[in-house]
Design a protein that fits this description.
Pfam families: Metallophos_2. This protein has 168 residues and is an alpha/beta fold. The protein is 15% helix and 30% strand.
């Protein structure tokens, strides 16, 4: 099972399409919020399952602010993260996930790739495919791949095309 995890596309739907074309071989897409209106477009890009949650910029969206999905034995919590104050750390998110028997927490909002693997909980952020904020300013996504033995492996990827928006 190969899950493409993206976040913070901020209406740059062509970047979502570009990442899907670059990765190609995936079984599910998870978007961690700040879609900004492209929900139907994103779902139409693939016949694979697509999980979307609302971010702090999805003002008029009907998307849920969080989802729990079960994939091959993993309980995955998907949120944008602003409700858990992830700009200041992941402690609140980690506490919530441990209280709800979550094995993988996926969030966005910070626009920075992040991966923390512990025995009972993996916390990750794919970064942003439109407004990267890490030092290198690379547009990033993440692949969660579950092998035949049920082990999860995580890989950050760099989106090699599309439009990039810097910050002022």
């Amino acid at each position: 099972m190969k899950i493409l995890v993206i976040s913070d596309s901020h209406g740059r739907d062509e970047n979502v399409k570009g990442v899907m074309e670059q990765v190609k071989d995936f079984d599910m897409v998870i978007h961690c919020g700040d879609v900004e209106g492209g929900e139907d477009y994103i779902k139409a890009l693939t016949d694979k399952p697509v999980i979307l949650v609302a971010g702090n910029n999805d003002f008029y969206s009907d998307l849920p602010d969080r989802e729990i999905v079960e994939v091959e034995g993993y309980r995955i919590f998907v949120t944008h993260g602003h409700q858990f104050y992830v700009n200041f750390g992941t402690e609140d998110l980690e506490t919530y996930c441990r209280q709800h028997n979550i094995q993988v927490a996926m969030f966005g909002h910070t626009h920075r790739p992040y991966l923390q693997i512990e025995d009972d909980l993996t916390v990750l952020n794919p970064g942003s495919i439109s407004y990267p904020r890490q030092r290198e300013r690379k547009q990033t996504y993440l692949i969660m791949e579950i092998d035949k033995q049920g082990e999860a492996h995580y890989f950050h990827g760099i989106y090699e095309g599309g439009s990039y928006r810097g910050f002022f």
